[in-house]
């Protein structure tokens, strides 16, 4: 055996050994890790999500302060044992404001997401199933909505109808249905060609029942994922609008309204405890929703798995 | 190409007309009418109703709704956008004074997010499944989750207030002459506005690059013995970028909407700030006209982007 052959043999041995021990399977291994990591992310997300939900909705258990109680004597105190995140310009406890404000912010986000999805699904299913002028009209309308920067449209509508929690909810639903509409419509377009639909038609089942009862459930998978993701978007939007002072009326505590005072440069500079914790809270909550939504999408939609 | 242009125009013009109609409808629904905007409330209250009616008639305010709409549209087409209620300055002038600042900010943000997003997306795709990819994916999610204005506040707090590297806000100061003078003011708002878009671009560039990696022409390039670098960047990159360029058009509404918030945080004297102060001052004609301008800007630029992508990629214009 010449030296070269010996060298090659040795190399081959190492390769076989590696393959047997699973090292050569690196690509697969990484993929497995990635999957696991993504699931782990969704789990971490779920953990953060539940913690914040519990903190907000059982707020009286965690803080004894009234979020609306004004107490000028303790205004602008930095964090201490009495006030975990300090107090704001008129002496309200920031920690309790974050918890109670979270309730409303989360409810607005979730409510708008559910409402917008409902509207989008109902219109999208019918438009996709029937086609024709209704489909054409709704498709063009949704294009117009997509061209309009959503926050500008929200601001316009707020000026027209005024600021209140209900109005904001309505505005979010009115401006947010297009994405789900297009998604449902596209799914319905392909589903309506299935054979069971023809069978139902032959049987004389009324059209709305075919559309909503028999086809629609097959198109709903991605919609549920989208509800989580749009909740995140609406929470961010409420925060942005309230930050500019044009969302929920200022006297009601929401995450965006607490941040509103950070428009003042002096507060931004000196009283960091007013805006930093609540901003972090919004970011964490939205991040957790995005983690969950991403995990859901990966596990439900095979086309997204990489 | 000509047919494609005409087809796009045929889509965009009805939408512009519809948008202008909505703006006019909004103006009509706002409280008060043109006469009450022209005189102060006290004079108005003491005015003879018959004379008030005559003024309305003379101004064409009693004409049917559609006639008023067409009169208004003619004025707008001639470049007469009306006057600001609070300062009496023509809206046209206000728009032209503030628009350049917004365009400067948006372009800088667009440039920043496109470059950073594509680079990170490609790295992520090439290192697919590895640690770098995972970290970038999480970073992307983080970028989509943190409120834009909160990133703005934090960057102001860190870089402008505590470190003092960059100015706190604004755009112009006395004595500023060139773009270089203004550049420090532009950096923070542009980066913050761009960051929110970067995450989207990154995701898109990553999946597009992965998509291309499985194509036959990449295998051909690789089997020719070209270096990995050449395969990825000369052959793969060009094709992978077309969908990213299309995404540019979809990002415009986000960009223009985001600029309103960012201009508020950094006191950037752009059209978004003007818009907000008009809303706060219930300066309805201003609000409506600026909204119309923003939609106009989105539509026209997405039209231009469509044309450019069609030029780049024959598949787009033939489909």
Question: Topology, please?
Answer:
The complex is a heterodimer of chains A (306) and B (319).
Chain A: H1 3-20, H2 26-57, H3 59-62, H4 94-130, H5 132-147, H6 150-161, H7 165-176, H8 178-191, H9 195-202, H10 207-219, H11 221-243, H12 255-259, H13 265-270, H14 272-300
Helix pairs in contact in A: 2-4, 2-14, 4-5, 4-7, 4-8, 4-10, 4-11, 5-8, 6-7, 8-10, 11-14
Chain B: H1 2-29, H2 34-38, H3 41-46, H4 49-59, H5 65-77, H6 91-126, H7 131-145, H8 148-162, H9 179-213, H10 216-223, H11 228-266, H12 271-280, H13 284-312, H14 314-318
Q: What is the CATH superfamily classification of chain A?
A: MetI-like
Roughly what fraction of the amino acids of chain A lie in strands?
A: under 5%
Give the oligomer, counting copies of the same chain as homo and different chains as hetero.
Answer: heterodimer
The coarse silhouette of chain A is: flat
Helix content of chain B: over 70%
H and E string of chain A:
HHHHHHHHHHHHHH
| Main pleated sheet of chain B | none
Global Rg of chain A = 27 Å
Mean pLDDT of chain B: 78
Mean pLDDT value of chain A: 81
Gross CATH architecture of chain A: Orthogonal Bundle
Report the order of strands and helices of chain B. Answer: HHHHHHHHHHHHHH
Low-confidence stretches of chain A: none
Largest sheet of chain A: none
Number of helices, counting only DSSP H or I runs of 4 residues or more of chain A: 14
Low-confidence segments of chain B, given as residue ranges, are none
Largest interface: A-B, 49 and 53 residues
Q: The CATH topology of chain A, please?
A: MetI-like fold
* Total of helices of chain B: 14
Helix and strand composition category of chain A: mainly alpha
Rounded to the nearest angstrom, the distance between the terminal CA atoms of chain A is 47 Å
């Amino acid at each position: 055996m010449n030296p070269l052959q010996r060298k090659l043999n040795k190399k081959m041995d190492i390769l076989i050994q590696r393959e047997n021990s699973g090292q050569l399977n690196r690509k697969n291994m990484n993929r497995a890790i990635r999957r696991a990591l993504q699931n782990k992310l969704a789990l971490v997300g779920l953990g953060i999500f539940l913690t914040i939900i519990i903190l907000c909705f059982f707020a009286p258990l965690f803080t004894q302060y009234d979020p609306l109680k004004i107490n000028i004597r303790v205004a602008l105190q930095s964090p201490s044992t009495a006030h975990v995140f300090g107090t704001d310009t008129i002496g309200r406890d920031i920690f309790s404001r974050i918890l109670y404000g979270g309730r409303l912010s989360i409810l607005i986000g979730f409510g708008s997401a559910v409402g917008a999805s409902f509207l989008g699904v109902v219109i999208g299913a019918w438009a996709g199933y029937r086609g024709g002028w209704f489909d054409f009209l709704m498709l063009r309308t949704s294009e117009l909505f997509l061209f309009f920067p959503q926050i500008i449209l929200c601001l316009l509508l707020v000026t027209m109808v005024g600021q209140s929690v209900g109005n904001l909810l309505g505005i979010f639903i009115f401006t947010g249905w297009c994405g789900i509409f297009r998604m449902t419509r596209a799914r319905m377009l392909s589903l309506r060609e299935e054979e069971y639909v023809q069978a139902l038609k032959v049987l004389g089942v009324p059209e709305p029942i075919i559309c909503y009862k028999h086809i629609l459930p097959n198109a709903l998978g991605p919609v549920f994922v989208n509800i989580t993701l749009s909740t995140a978007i609406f929470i961010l939007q409420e925060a942005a609008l309230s930050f500019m002072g044009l969302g929920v009326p200022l006297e009601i505590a929401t995450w965006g309204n607490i941040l509103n005072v950070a428009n003042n440069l002096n507060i931004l500079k000196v009283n960091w405890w007013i805006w930093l914790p609540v901003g972090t809270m919004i970011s964490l909550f939205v991040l957790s929703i995005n983690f969950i939504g991403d995990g859901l999408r990966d596990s439900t939609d095979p086309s997204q798995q990489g | 190409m000509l047919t494609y242009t005409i087809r796009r125009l045929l889509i965009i013009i009805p939408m512009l007309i519809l948008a202008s109609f909505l703006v006019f409808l909004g103006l009509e629904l706002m409280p008060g009418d043109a006469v009450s905007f022209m005189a102060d409330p006290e004079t108005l209250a003491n005015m003879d109703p018959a004379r008030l009616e005559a003024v309305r008639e003379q101004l064409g305010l009693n004409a049917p709704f559609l006639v008023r709409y067409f009169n208004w549209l003619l004025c707008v087409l001639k470049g007469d956008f009306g006057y600001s209620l609070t300062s009496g300055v023509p809206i046209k002038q206000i728009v032209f004074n503030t628009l350049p600042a917004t365009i400067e900010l948006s372009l800088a943000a667009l440039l920043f997010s496109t470059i950073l997003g594509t680079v990170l997306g490609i790295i992520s795709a090439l290192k697919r499944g590895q640690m770098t990819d995972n970290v970038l994916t999480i970073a992307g999610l983080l970028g989509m989750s943190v409120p834009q204005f909160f990133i703005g506040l934090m960057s102001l707090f860190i870089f402008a207030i505590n470190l003092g590297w960059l100015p706190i806000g604004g755009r112009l100061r006395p004595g500023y002459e060139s773009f270089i003078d203004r550049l420090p003011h532009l950096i923070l708002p542009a980066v913050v506005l761009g960051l929110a878009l970067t995450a989207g671009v990154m995701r898109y560039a990553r999946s597009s690059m992965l998509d291309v990696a499985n194509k036959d022409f990449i295998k051909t390039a690789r089997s020719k013995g070209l270096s990995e670098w050449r395969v990825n960047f000369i052959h793969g990159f060009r094709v992978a970028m077309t969908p990213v360029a299309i995404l540019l058009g979809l990002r415009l509404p986000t960009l223009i909407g985001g600029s309103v918030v960012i201009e508020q945080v950094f006191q950037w004297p752009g059209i978004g700030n003007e818009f907000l102060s008009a809303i706060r001052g219930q300066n309805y004609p201003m609000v409506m006209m600026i909204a119309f301008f923003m939609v106009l800007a989105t539509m026209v630029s997405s039209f231009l982007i469509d044309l450019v992508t069609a030029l780049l990629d024959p598949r787009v214009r033939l489909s």
